[in-house]
Amino acid sequence: MEDQIVEAIARFDYPPVTYDFIAGCELSFPSMIDLDHYLQDLLLSGTQDKLKDGLCGILYWGNYRAPYRDYRVAKFRMGVTSAKLHLASTVVRILDGSSLATLRDLRLPQFSQMAFVTKFRTFLDPERYCVLDSKIGKLKFLSDRLMRQKTYIPINTHNEEVYRRWVDICGSIAARLQRKLRPVDVERGFFYLLDHNKVEIADEYLSSAA
């Protein structure tokens, strides 16, 4: 089964794309690692304009297959204020630990619940963190533990602890596989399995790894 997990990680096929808001065109990268580093640089640049583009880039990537992608990005660009970006540009460089509640409390438009706050946290530090969204939340390990609302996973003390446990497990699996993998690579492998109707493989492997 370990071979199937390794294969799923290698086959992760969500597009490594975002948008260049200066040139006004879509950007496609050779790999997710390249996209990770591009967005991380924007988010940690210390400038409001680059931070804004980095956050919009997360929304563009995260909603890439959704018909409302461009609407979500445009709504963020119109709704985010200079004051919020100024505060966020300071906060993101001094985060300690998962800090989901801290990121939520920045009150950035569309970055209030688990899916996109964990994307934000992951692109800030892709070597250490990974995503927990509604699709990944279907894994039995997570679905048995998360406190959910009907259409989203809220950030609260309980769910942040579940998130930290999820990051730890993905990190432990990455270390066990010994292929210079990161927690986010493992999480993306599980995403691939869910996306290709192989949830039973993911659940079985997690039951032995957790």
Describe this structure in words.
The chain has 210 residues and is mostly helical. The chain has one domain (2-209). The chain is built from eleven helices and two strands. It has helices at 2-11, 32-43, 48-62, 69-79, 82-91, 100-104, 114-124, 140-143, 157-177, 183-195, 199-209; strands at residues 17-20, 25-28. Strands 1-2 form a two-stranded antiparallel ribbon. A hairpin with a 4-residue loop joins strand 1 and strand 2 (25-28). Helix 3 packs across helix 7. The chain is globular. The model has no long low-confidence stretch (mean pLDDT 97).
Number of domains: 1
The helix-and-strand class reads mainly alpha
The number of distinct β-strands equals 2
Largest sheet: 2 strands, antiparallel
Q: Enumerate the spans where pLDDT stays under 50 for 5 or more consecutive residues.
A: none
What does the average pLDDT come to?
97
Element string (H = helix, E = strand): HEEHHHHHHHHHH
Report how far the terminal alpha carbons are from each other: 15 Å
What is the count of helical runs?
11
Output the strand order for the largest sheet. Answer: 1-2
Which range best describes the helical content: under 10%, 10-25%, 25-40%, 40-55%, 55-70% or over 70%?
Answer: 55-70%
Question: What is the gyration radius calculated from CA atoms?
Answer: 17 Å
User: What overall form do the CA principal axes indicate?
Assistant: globular
Keywords:
two-stranded antiparallel ribbon; globular; 4% strand; 210 residues; single chain
